[in-house]
């Protein structure tokens, strides 16, 4: 997959499009002349992104749905086809977070996270594969995380989901090697989104400690979503198999590659501090 993927005149579906990377990437794709099917459970945020994208002169449709609902995902291809007639780019961006040591978290929250971060990615991909393989050149873009390369303490469920997205995406890439369907895996680092503030936390946990932990994490989320979106868009256009977003993510990935077992001895203070 070395030929540049031309976005003008294509149709892309972006999940989690109401804010953060999803909204920024939607607008970055619109700037290239790419029509959009936007999906999110937040109707107000979704409408705001849709207005901004439409102002760039591309066709936009809004699809309000909960990605934890398998039936809603199954119905989505027909809705996208009815509005746009096809699909060339699927961006599985939506994700949620769950903080706390594994012994402290409720397993119902773990199931919620896995359903959105992993099962929805697989269900969306399975639902749209017929449209994508019929489109000629097409691209699947799955967002993992730098926590799909390293696994910090306190992020057992989140890392499990993002490592699984990585494994799923790499296997999918191998299955479609040599075909017009490309597959891109994205590992963002510290992007300034609302994921830390909206993360679920253990019931009965110390509220002050939880608040301090969220504040410490948000201080590390420094890259603007618009900058991350430009990097991801460039990766889509290049049909890159893997995109690591941010200097912090590149450093962490390098340390993990050099110290695949003992990386935590170097990273603990930087991540937990």
Automatic annotation (TrEMBL):
UniProt-recorded Gene Ontology molecular function terms: oxidoreductase activity
**Top-level lineage group:** Bacteria
Q: Can the keyword Metal-binding be found in this entry's annotation?
A: no
Query: Ketoreductase domain: from which residue to which, for each copy?
Result: 10-194
* Cellular component annotations (GO), alphabetically ordered: membrane
**Oxidoreductase as UniProt keyword:** yes
Keywords linked to the UniProt accession: Oxidoreductase
Record's InterPro entries?
Answer: KR_dom (IPR057326), NAD(P)-bd_dom_sf (IPR036291), Sc_DH/Rdtase_CS (IPR020904), SDR_fam (IPR002347)
List the PROSITE patterns hit by this protein, alphabetically: ADH_SHORT
Coiled-coil parts of chain: none
Family according to the record: Belongs to the short-chain dehydrogenases/reductases (SDR) family.
The record's section on PANTHER family has: DEHYDROGENASE/REDUCTASE SDR FAMILY MEMBER 7B, DEHYDROGENASE_REDUCTASE SDR FAMILY MEMBER 7B
- What is the protein's name according to its record? Acetoin dehydrogenase
Source organism of the structure: Methylobacterium haplocladii
């Amino acid at each position: 997959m070395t030929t540049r993927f031309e976005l003008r005149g294509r149709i892309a579906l972006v999940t989690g499009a109401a804010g953060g990377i999803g909204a920024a990437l939607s607008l970055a794709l619109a700037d290239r002349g790419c029509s959009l099917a936007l999906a999110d459970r937040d109707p107000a945020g979704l409408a705001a992104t849709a207005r901004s994208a439409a102002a760039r002169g591309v066709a936009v449709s809004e699809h309000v749905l909960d990605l934890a609902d398998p039936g809603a995902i199954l119905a989505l291809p027909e809705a996208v086809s009815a509005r746009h007639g096809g699909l060339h780019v699927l961006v599985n961006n939506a994700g949620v977070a769950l903080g706390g040591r594994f012994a402290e978290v409720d397993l119902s929250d773990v199931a919620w996270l896995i359903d959105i971060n992993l099962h929805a990615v697989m269900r969306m991909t399975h639902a749209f594969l017929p449209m994508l393989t019929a489109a000629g050149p097409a691209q699947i873009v799955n967002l993992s995380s730098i926590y799909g390369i390293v696994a910090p303490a306190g992020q057992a469920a989140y890392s499990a989901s993002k490592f699984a997205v990585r494994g799923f995406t790499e296997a999918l890439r191998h299955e479609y090697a040599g075909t017009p369907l490309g597959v891109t895996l994205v590992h963002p680092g510290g992007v300034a989104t609302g994921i830390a503030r909206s993360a679920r936390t253990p019931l009965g946990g110390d509220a002050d400690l939880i608040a301090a932990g969220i504040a410490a994490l948000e201080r590390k989320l420094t890259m603007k979503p618009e900058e991350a979106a430009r990097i991801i868009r460039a990766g889509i256009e290049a049909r890159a198999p893997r995109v690591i977003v941010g200097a912090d993510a590149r450093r962490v990935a390098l340390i993990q590659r050099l110290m695949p077992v003992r990386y935590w001895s170097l990273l603990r203070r930087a991540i937990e501090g």
